[in-house]
Amino acid sequence: MFKLGNIFIVSGxxxxxxxxxxxxxxxxxxxxxxxxxxxxxxxxTCSGIIINKRGPLDRK
Length: 60
Known about the structure:
Elements: H1 2-25, H2 34-53
Helix pairs in contact: 1-2
Keywords: Membrane, Transmembrane, Transmembrane helix
Protein name: DUF3784 domain-containing protein
Transmembrane segments: 7-28, 34-51
């Protein structure tokens, strides 16, 4: 579970950075808007943090 959370956090941060760089340099196509990338990156990052904060599923 923790690996999945880390993957979500890293991919979310990369999407946010891509949208920031893309809005500055204007290399993203019109279909991929930077707002979509930022919102998706935020959701991925928050999901990864929530997954990492959850307790283990092993209940005794």
